[in-house]
């Protein structure tokens, strides 16, 4: 396909048609008359050799190809918008811009809050938006990164994209303070026999995969979509949960649980900010990445692991 032969305005028209599924509404949305929008639809149908929109009673439905193009067109438009809004210079004190970062609730609590405070002080016109990490991030990394400004995620989950190193953290276990089955130290036998609460996306837990290599298969009793609710699901039960130490200490006092060392040498967590190569030389993104690295230096990681049975709540 020769891009020089394409009319990129058709991409905008295609997105409006597929999302509105109505020629008149699509034209109104992008400022085209009904005849001009009908002409655009005819050109698109010839290009794809497909109706894209097919009449069903009194309305239109997407064809199978139209359904496939729906998400791809949205991604393409977002990428084009970011491409053509790239800047050679960026003055954070004067610019007005929104940055979108994909992150878990852990990354927002430990790092995102500090980043937001710094941006508030240094860049009053800059807005920061955090969105939840989607379940299919490993399979759709490129698509996600092309339509956002960055992804906060530890090493060991995705690869093949540039990243700014942020900070290091450790994995620790949460155990209820009144759990009579756990003494001053957790054992590998404890990890195998006690029920678990886990963060539901298994790819976010490299230490769990490490346990599998040691022959320990966690018996998951509850799974959730938030790291920050883990203490509440451990308190008053036999359950245990694996959580990041920096977050566990920030949650001190929210629930009567103990913070305990793993009974094995757990792989440390190395948090990074990943981005799409299209953003590499954009001045605004360079500033964002440099600011993120500077803020991360103040977050840091714990110098030492928790003492056995260290309480973090109650």
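Q: What amino acid sequence fits the structure above?
A:
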């Amino acid at each position: 396909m020769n891009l020089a032969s394409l009319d990129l305005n058709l991409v905008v028209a295609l997105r409006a048609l597929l999302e509105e599924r109505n020629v008149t509404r699509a034209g109104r949305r992008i400022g085209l008359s009904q005849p001009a929008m009908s002409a655009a639809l005819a050109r698109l149908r010839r290009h794809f050799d497909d109706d894209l929109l097919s009449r069903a009673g009194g309305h239109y439905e997407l064809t199978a190809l139209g359904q496939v193009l729906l998400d791809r067109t949205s991604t393409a438009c977002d990428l084009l918008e970011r491409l053509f809004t790239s800047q050679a210079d960026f003055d954070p004190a004067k610019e007005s811009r929104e940055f979108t970062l994909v992150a878990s609730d852990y990354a927002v609590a430990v790092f995102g809050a500090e980043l937001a405070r710094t941006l508030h002080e240094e860049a009053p016109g800059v807005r920061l938006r955090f969105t939840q990490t989607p379940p299919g991030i490993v399979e759709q990394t490129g698509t996600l990164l092309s339509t956002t400004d960055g992804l906060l995620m530890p090493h060991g989950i995705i690869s093949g994209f540039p990243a700014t190193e942020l900070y290091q953290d450790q994995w620790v276990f949460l155990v209820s303070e009144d759990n009579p089955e756990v003494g001053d130290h957790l054992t590998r036998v404890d990890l195998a026999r006690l029920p678990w609460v886990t963060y539901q996306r298994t790819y976010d837990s490299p230490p769990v995969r490490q346990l599998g290599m040691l022959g320990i298969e966690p018996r998951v009793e509850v799974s959730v979509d938030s790291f920050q609710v883990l203490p509440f699901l451990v308190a008053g039960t036999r359950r245990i949960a694996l959580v990041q130490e920096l977050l566990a200490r920030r949650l001190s006092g929210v629930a009567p649980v103990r913070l305990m060392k793993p009974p094995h040498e757990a792989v440390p967590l190395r948090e990074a900010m990943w981005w799409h190569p299209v953003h590499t030389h954009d001045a605004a993104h360079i500033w964002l990445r440099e600011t993120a690295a500077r803020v991360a230096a103040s977050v840091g990681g714990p110098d030492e692991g928790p003492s056995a049975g260290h309480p973090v709540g109650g």
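Q: And what stands out in the fold?
A: The longest strand covers residues 97-103.
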